[in-house]
């Protein structure tokens, strides 16, 4: 088993006033040649957008873009005509493919919105752009990981053009769970949303990340109440 640990305080940071953003991997003005990606996981941004502010219309292409709101409501508009609001408990995916424009705005007048913006390098270029979102409230399970993203259109959660699987889980103190990887050659990036967890004797706290590869499975134990995101992705571009 191979591992890499990224403590929360070592992430890149940019405070633009309206946007306070932490970058696990190199992004925009933050460049670290040792932290360009984890396999095909290219971007993991932890964003906080002030009320009434947001990202104006901007382009993307040939990228799978996933948004996971943690607090507040985020309004999305795009060049395909989609207008929607995503909030805590939702997962949004956008396949940029041949090219798309979109904007994201905090629609709350007096509350910040916090969300994860995640980019995955796709296994196909030039696909037709598409948009989807789901609510996870009906698939959440107590003290278990539940799948929110996969490569399969007919599987649980949203789907992407890549052999990737995302799972979320909330765990009570001292709960231990084993995760078995879905595909040989994949790795898993563990990201702690809340609480503290132990992964193979490594203690991870809020917003810490840990990449794991060259293994078929691993154990995770919540040292207190914990909320965790697992991102299983191919390790080779």
From TrEMBL:
Signal peptide: none annotated. It comes from the Bacteria. Pfam families: Pirin, Pirin_C_2. Residues 10-120 form the Pirin N-terminal domain. Residues 148-233 form the Quercetin 2,3-dioxygenase C-terminal cupin domain. Belongs to the pirin family. This is Pirin family protein. It comes from Wenyingzhuangia heitensis.
